């Protein structure tokens, strides 16, 4: 995907251009759905999150003009979707339903692929050597920018466990790189 094109589409959406919104949706929805599916196996919740995300995009595209101009349209879209997913998990918890999450991604997550392609050998290997439960916490908190609480909800873990795993992951990376 071309970040510049998506940014231009969002600037047009901000001016109320429905065709630009349709094109933005057509280009980004498959990517967003795959990325969300790696964190949530509940198709009903997934559908709701995608819909809520694009409603939010339509309503708040006007506030995005500076971000879109800097080529951060997909990052902005992901932030909205991740927050909507956390909200969806919270709603499920309030309804006394346990959120369904995938234990292991079927394919490598986009962030894992990006990390593997863009990091030096030492850091890349240190990340790959982390146990999956530590890597998931680190990915959610560092790459997705979620808080401890949001990561806790997303992964279905107590906040204390998230903090412990994040600390263990950082310690392991520091030791591997020294």
TrEMBL record:
Domain (RNA polymerase sigma factor 70 region 4 type) ranges: 123-173
Pfam entry (one): Sigma70_r4_2
Superkingdom classification of source: Bacteria
Keyword Cell inner membrane set for record: no
Keyword Transcription regulation: yes
UniProt keyword terms in alphabetical order: Sigma factor, Transcription, Transcription regulation
Family: Belongs to the sigma-70 factor family. ECF subfamily.
NCBIfam families: sigma70-ECF (TIGR02937)
Name of the protein described by the UniProt record: RNA polymerase sigma factor
Phylogenetic placement of the source organism: Bacteria, Bacillati, Actinomycetota, Actinomycetes, Kineosporiales
């Amino acid at each position: 995907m071309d970040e510049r094109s998506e940014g231009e589409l969002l600037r047009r959406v901000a001016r109320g251009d429905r065709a630009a919104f349709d094109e933005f949706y057509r280009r980004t929805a498959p990517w967003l759905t795959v990325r969300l599916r790696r964190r949530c196996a509940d198709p009903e919740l997934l559908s709701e999150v995608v819909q809520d995300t694009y409603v939010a995009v339509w309503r708040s595209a006007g506030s995005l003009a500076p971000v879109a101009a800097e080529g951060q349209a997909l990052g902005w879209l992901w932030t909205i979707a991740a927050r909507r997913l956390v909200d969806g998990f919270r709603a499920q918890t309030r309804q006394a339903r346990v959120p369904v999450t995938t234990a292991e991604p079927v394919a490598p997550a986009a962030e894992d692929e990006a990390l593997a392609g863009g990091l030096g050998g030492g850091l890349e290997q240190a990340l790959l050597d982390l146990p999956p439960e530590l890597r998931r916490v680190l990915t959610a908190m560092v790459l997705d920018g979620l808080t401890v609480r949001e990561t806790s909800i997303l992964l279905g873990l107590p906040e204390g466990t998230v903090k412990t795993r994040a600390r263990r992951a950082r310690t392991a990376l520091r030791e591997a790189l020294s």
